[in-house]
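TICKET: design request
STATUS: open
ATTACHED STRUCTURE:
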């Protein structure tokens, strides 16, 4: 048992050196390796005692259990070493992908702008630089960048949509009428009437109101998902450390394996769908100009009123050219595409994570079920 314990402690020095780096996955909890070494040491002592008892009293079943526990401890140390290296590989790969993913646009002069996060304002913006900054963990930063930049892309769209709705509602309120008064002894009778000049705008304005309400919900969900990714990163660290510590004793091994699978899944698998979103999802928005928001001049009575389709209704629908290619994006299409980011992506991320945990947890000795959640898959 002494040579095995010495080898295990030497192997623990590998992740201990990397965990001290300020940009490491486990840098905020450097004590976890110390506690892991202490628990492994105590477990090795207990296993050594059990081995002596099994040979002294000739108990084959106990000796077989000892051999199995030795293999489990070695496997636990192997997980620590491998995942420490795996986290570094993820970081290097993400740093390379950040050059393409965080890119905002390339100007006509060849200058490149990238999305960056401003800690002071809590907002994403674009800066002109040769290489983007990608703080650790880079893949989480890129996933957050997809959500944060989408939030910023929709901001001008919401502004234009709100202006169009306000102006069109004002136009709808215009009317012509008359007011007549009759005075009688002890009585005053007022008679007034008004005829709306733009009644057809009511349906159009109701549509704009629905679109504005839905897009406001969407950007709220975008910010919620971005914040959730930050908390998930910290939570995955706690899962990993707890899983390592609980996997060492045999009586908590199943729970420890499950927590380890949850840690790896939430850290590496969950952000994957958002990384793919940079390449797969269209975040185009409709550009609303002031040309659709002209308020009629009441002095030009002959031009007041609308017949047929209200002015501006064309903003709702996407226009295509003769070849069937998109020429101008409509307001309805923008909201429809935004739903993909706020509904499909989180569902895909959750299902991928649950599926990974369900299949990976038994491989490292953990439970196979997540309290019924895996029945969804």
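STATUS: resolved
RESOLUTION: sequence designed for all positions
ATTACHED SEQUENCE:
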């Amino acid at each position: 048992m002494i040579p095995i314990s010495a080898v295990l402690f030497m192997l623990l020095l590998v992740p201990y050196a990397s965990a001290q780096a300020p940009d490491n996955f486990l840098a905020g909890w450097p004590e976890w390796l110390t506690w892991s070494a202490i628990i492994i040491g105590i477990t090795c002592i207990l296993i050594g005692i059990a081995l002596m008892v099994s040979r002294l009293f000739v108990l084959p079943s106990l000796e077989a259990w000892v051999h199995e526990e030795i293999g489990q401890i070695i496997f636990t140390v192997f997980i620590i070493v491998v995942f420490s290296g795996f986290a570094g590989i993820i970081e290097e790969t993400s740093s390379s992908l950040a050059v393409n993913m965080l890119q905002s646009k390339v100007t006509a002069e060849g200058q490149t702008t990238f999305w960056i996060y401003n800690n002071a304002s809590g907002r994403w913006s674009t800066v002109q630089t040769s290489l983007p900054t990608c703080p650790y963990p880079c893949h989480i930063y890129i996933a957050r960048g997809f959500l944060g930049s989408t939030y910023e892309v929709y901001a001008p769209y919401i502004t234009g949509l709100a202006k169009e709705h306000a102006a069109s509602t004002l136009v709808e309120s215009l009317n012509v009428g008359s007011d007549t008064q009759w005075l009688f002894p002890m009585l005053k009778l007022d008679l007034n009437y008004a005829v709306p000049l733009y009644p057809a705008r009511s349906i159009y304005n109701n549509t704009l109101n629905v679109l504005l309400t839905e897009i406001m919900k969407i950007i709220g969900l975008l910010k919620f998902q971005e914040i959730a990714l930050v908390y998930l990163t910290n939570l995955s660290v706690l899962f990993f450390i707890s899983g390592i510590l609980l996997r060492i004793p045999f009586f908590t091994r199943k729970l420890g394996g499950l927590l380890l699978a949850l840690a790896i899944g939430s850290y590496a698998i969950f952000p994957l769908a958002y990384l793919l979103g940079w390449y797969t999802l269209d975040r185009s928005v409709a550009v609303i100009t002031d040309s659709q928001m002209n308020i009629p001049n009441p002095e030009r009575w002959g031009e007041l009123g609308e017949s047929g389709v209200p002015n501006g209704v064309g903003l709702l629908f996407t226009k295509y050219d003769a070849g069937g290619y998109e020429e101008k994006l409509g307001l309805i299409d923008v909201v429809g595409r935004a739903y993909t980011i706020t509904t499909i992506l989180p569902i895909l991320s959750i299902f991928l994570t649950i599926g990974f945990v369900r299949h990976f947890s038994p491989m490292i000795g953990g439970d196979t079920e997540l309290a019924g959640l895996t029945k969804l898959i």
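CLOSING REMARK: The first strand starts at residue 103 and ends at 106. Residues 146-377 form one domain.
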